[in-house]
Amino acid sequence: MSKAIFPGSFDPPTIGHINIIERSASLFDELHVVVADNIEKRYLFTPEERIELLRKSLPDSRNIIYSVHSGLTVDYAREHSISIMIRGVRGAGDFSYEFEMAMTNKLLYPELEVLFMPTDPKYFLIRASQIKELAQFGADFSSMVTPPVKAALEKKFSKKR
Question: What is the pTM of this model?
Answer without folding.
Answer: 0.92
